[in-house]
Please model this.
Amino acid sequence: MFHPPFCPNRECRNHHLSTKTAAWYVRNGSYFSRLFGRIQRFRCLCCGTGFSSQTFSLDIFVKKKVPYRRIFSHLITSSGIRDTARLLKVSPNTVNNRISRMARQAIAIHSSLSSLISLQEDLVADGFESFVYSQYFPNNINLLAGKESQFWFTSDYSHLRRKGRMTEYQKKKNHQIQKRFPVHRRSIYRSFQALVRFSLDLRKKSSRSSVTLFTDEHPQYVRVMCDLPGEERGLITHQRINSKLPRTVQNDLFSVNYLDREIRKDNSDHTRETVQFARNANNCMERLAVYRLYHNYIKPYRIGKREESRKTHAEWAGIPAQHIASEMKTVFTRRRFFSRSRWLSSSDILIWVRGISTPMKQMAEYLPAYSWA
Ligand SMILES: [Zn+2]
Model:
């Protein structure tokens, strides 16, 4: 028999229940759904809010059951959205809707599990360059990873201006586009600043007196470090590494080089020289959030028979296996709530609420009410 874990009304004192508390709700009849059979309804005794067992399901308000595991498998093996939709005999919009649901699950689980980490290693950051909508709208996705564990902590999105070699026609078009969609001059600066802030927060939660951050020699990174307030400058050491050095395991930037390679290989939005690329910046980041869940909590650290190799990147970063197993058990079934997800990073909040601007998109992003309850 289903027992609701908490009241879904975020204003109610029964919303933040963490253990089973007796008599905070009553059963309030049921209704029949063609898709899910008999659904039990409940009413909160404190605020009177009515809800049902479906309120706690990842499939809330769906009109068609689509296997999440199959979409997940396609997403992490470089399948396009239309291909996935054809194989599952649903529309591309349905696939995108289920990916949005999975992304919110991925973000909530990642924030909950990564809050258990007490940082024991140095950090590595780098920008991953791709584009959204067309090659006139390049972007930079800054990645922050553990130097030894290759645990992917966070990523931050920023738009860039198109530069580099162009024909006369392309230059003219680029000029017109930049007038319509201006990009902030210091977008990389702001994005890297968010990663530095995140690194300082990680240090604060650990027993380390300072943290070392390895990056390449991008001039904006140096500016961010110079602009840090005096008291914070001693807490973080910036190590710059020449990006032309061989990209081997010995390279100090190996973690982000490895992530960069894996994302290009496994994520159809970023495979170069194909017709597959992201059309919407929020969809692009949602897919990456799902991919981060796969990388951190499912994928083994290395290929090999030794038990150490088979551990996940999250275990290497210090997250106990039983916590990972307990969260992953319900990843495709039990809906995570925005209001109950603590420790969300600012860039993850932006992905959750679909708050990233997409070039040439005039309308605001559609965000269903249930998604940020
Ligand atoms: Zn209530």
